[in-house]
Inverse folding.
């Protein structure tokens, strides 16, 4: 009989229910436990999937001897502490983006996972989409010529977050796609933004990423745009690609 990976999910809020659905559908996994501090959310998840155990204590998931992997879909400020506890408990750990709130926290989590021989994965979901995979294939085959620049816009009205700004909320999607397409890291980054709705929480930003060989990328992210826009342009010396995610669904 095929051995299944036993999984628990922390967080039944905005993205958690989708992860619960997806992990239940994987043939190699058995989702056993879901956790949320909000009783109403927890009851809703358990009503949809009657075979799940619902708990309000993260420790039940993190320290549960009947689980091998933990999925973290909680507010960003809790990612580091929960992921660290999960890894130290010997659990493979899947985290919604962003991994944590600082480079130091991310590096520590990566170091723990390496030392303990565990998988630590951040859910950069677009890297597994057919359009992005095809674009990366085209770019890396040299079909566009030399890449000159990439421009990306991810704009909409809301959802306004309280614990992270729009750069942390939306830009990770574009950053992950750009790094995947170019297969290299930037040598310099500049980001500017303003907070118009909640003091200290930027709701519109412009980011520039500078790469070797005079290549650069610009990212615009906003919670204040009346239109929903998900568009990326990749400009090469021979050809160009316009990727409109709203037209690919």
């Amino acid at each position: 009989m095929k051995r299944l990976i036993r999984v628990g999910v922390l967080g039944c809020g905005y993205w958690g229910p989708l992860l619960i659905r997806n992990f239940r559908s994987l043939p190699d996994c058995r989702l056993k436990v879901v956790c949320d501090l909000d009783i109403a959310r927890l009851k809703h998840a358990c009503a949809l999937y009657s075979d799940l155990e619902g708990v309000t204590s993260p420790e039940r998931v993190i320290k549960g001897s009947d689980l091998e992997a933990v999925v973290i879909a909680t507010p960003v400020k809790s990612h580091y502490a929960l992921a660290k506890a999960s890894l130290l408990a010997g659990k493979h750990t899947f985290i919604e983006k962003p991994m944590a709130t600082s480079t130091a926290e991310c590096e520590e989590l990566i170091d723990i996972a390496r030392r303990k021989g565990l998988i630590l994965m951040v859910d950069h979901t677009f890297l597994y989409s057919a359009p992005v995979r095809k674009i990366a294939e085209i770019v890396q085959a040299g079909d566009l010529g030399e890449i000159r620049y990439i421009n990306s816009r991810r704009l909409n009205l809301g959802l306004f977050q309280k614990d992270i700004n729009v750069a942390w909320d939306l830009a990770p999607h574009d950053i992950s796609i750009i790094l995947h397409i170019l297969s290299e890291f930037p040598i310099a980054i500049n980001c500017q933004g303003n907070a118009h709705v909640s003091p200290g929480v930027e709701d519109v930003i412009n980011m520039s990423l500078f790469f070797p060989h005079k290549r650069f990328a610009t990212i615009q992210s906003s919670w204040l745009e009346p239109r929903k826009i998900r568009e990326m342009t990749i400009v090469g010396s021979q050809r160009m690609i316009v990727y409109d995610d709203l037209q690919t669904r």
